[in-house]
Design brief:
This protein starts with 7 loop residues before the first helix and ends with a helix. The protein is globular, with a radius of gyration of 22 Å. The longest helix is centred in the last third of the chain and has 21 residues. With 412 residues, the protein is of the alpha/beta class. 37% of the residues lie in helices and 13% in strands. The protein folds into two domains: 270 residues, Type I PLP-dependent aspartate aminotransferase-like (Major domain) (Aspartate Aminotransferase, domain 2), CATH 3.40.640; 132 residues, Aspartate Aminotransferase, domain 1, CATH 3.90.1150.10. Strand 4, helix 7 and strand 5 form a beta-alpha-beta unit. The chain has 15 helices and twelve strands. The mean pLDDT is 96. The structure holds pyridoxal-5'-phosphate (PLP). Pyridoxal-5'-phosphate (PLP) binds next to helix 4.
Length: 412
């Protein structure tokens, strides 16, 4: 079946298996083994020489994981995909594949906390320079770019600031400067956002969040949209002659991924495959709940301010409509009078859970200042917009009237 013109859910559900299962299972089986049997010494020699593809050892490739990669390609249209053990594995592997010692990365300091720490501390310790700017200001990004800049790295909607970059504009600058545009689109999964249409070269996602289908497993994925000329990247210089436009993925798969050992397991890939199939239903329900909660927050005097980029009151509304099909994820923020009031409110909640994850099927709440950002200095918190009065809500798929009642009662 040709899936090119089909919708998201049809493509996800009907991605063909690479090989028919012996029992005609409708699900791709979970191939939970480590090693694979070869018919002959000649066959194993061909496989090791890279002349004939066959699964040999599950840290480097596994049939169930490969099927998840195939599904990701099918729903996004990406040229190549690779699944890893977590979102952080995906991000660190991509940056280590693209940037050589002495090269630099331009990024925002409004990032997922561990990505920020990776860029602030870990990568510089290997001789990679990182420059933090306001990515929504193209002049600033341009000023920070020089002949050693290899990557612009940004998140599609930052959290908890809920800031949105004009991706096409940033892509224009990246193209002009010969810099790889890498986005982390964890909060705007493939059903709502197609990164290639906005000029992103490489897309990374933590599949732990929306894709896993309700916080069932850890995972990450990297997609190559096939749009970058890899001859411009010194870290790929020994690959480009032989591998041309596959150079990035070949170095990632054959070198960085294999040597750092961040493989996804078959069981996890099974969860990801199931989650991907019902992603559209879950995202639609989450967005519907966010819009209804926005209406409630608007009229409640205990809520000092609130933010969700999917409604007209948000400055990012138009951009979210254009970039994310008007469905900009399910993270909302709001402010109460004081930190004490936030704690008291959280403690009274009965349905909404106090937890740090995003895009579970359950609605989760956290007070970012005292938790995720507790290791940061006051100055850093201020720069990141982390106020003591701020709460972050990751909206799930419950019946929204129950969520509103829970919040109403907890506000007292
Ligand atoms: C959670 C998250 C990550 C890290 O993903 P893990 O799967 O926890 O390693 C990276 N980026 C964003 C935006 C996230 O929300």
């Amino acid at each position: 079946m040709d899936h090119e013109n089909k919708g998201y859910s049809t493509r996800s559900l009907h991605t063909a298996f690479p090989k028919n299962d012996a029992y005609n299972s409708l699900h791709m089986p979970v191939y939970d083994g480590v090693a694979y049997d070869f018919e002959s010494s000649e066959e194993i020699e061909l496989s090791f020489a890279g002349k004939k593809f066959a699964h040999a050892y599950s840290r480097t490739s596994n049939p169930t994981v490969e099927y998840f990669e195939k599904k990701m390609k099918s729903v996004t249209g990406a040229q190549a995909a690779i699944a890893l053990s977590s979102g952080m594995a995906a991000i660190s592997n991509v940056l280590m594949t693209l940037v050589e010692q002495g090269g630099n990365i331009v990024t925002s300091n409004h990032l997922f906390g561990h990505s920020y720490a990776l860029l602030k501390n870990t990568l510089p310790s290997f001789g990679i320079e990182v420059r933090f700017v306001d990515m929504t200001n193209l002049n600033e990004v341009e000023k920070c770019t020089d002949s050693k800049t290899r990557v612009y790295f940004f998140e599609t909607i930052t959290n908890p600031q809920l800031e949105v970059v004009d991706i096409q504009a940033l892509s224009g600058l990246a193209k002009e400067k010969g810099v790889v545009l890498v986005c982390d689109s964890t909060v705007t999964p493939p059903y709502v956002f197609n990164s290639a249409s906005f000029g992103v070269d490489v897309e990374v996602m933590s599949t732990t969040k929306f894709i896993s289908g309700g916080a069932t497993a850890f995972g990450g994925v990297v997609l190559d949209n096939g749009s970058f000329d890899w001859t411009k990247i010194p870290a790929l210089s020994s690959y480009v002659e032989k591998f041309k436009n596959e150079s990035f993925m070949v170095r990632l798969r054959k070198e960085i991924f294999r040597h750092l050992g961040g493989a996804m397991t078959a069981h996890v890939a099974h969860f990801m495959n199931l989650g991907l199939d019902i992603l559209a239903l879950r995202v639609d329900k989450c967005v519907e709940n966010c819009v209804a909660l926005s209406q409630f927050f608007k009229t409640n005097s205990a809520v000092k301010s609130w933010s969700y980029p999917g409604v007209e009151e948000s400055d990012a509304f138009a951009l979210c409509k254009k970039q994310f099909s008007g469905k900009p994820g399910a993270v909302m923020t709001f402010d109460l009078e004081s930190k004490e009031r936030c704690f008291e409110f959280m403690n009274r909640l009965q349905i909404i859970r106090r937890a740090t994850n995003l895009n579970d099927n359950k609605t989760l709440i956290i007070h970012p200042e005292s938790t995720i950002y507790s290791e940061f200095s006051d100055e850093e918190k201020k720069e990141m917009g982390i106020r003591p009065t701020l709460l972050r809500l990751s909206v799930g798929i419950e019946d929204v009237k129950d969520l509103i009642n829970d919040i109403k009662e907890a506000l007292g």
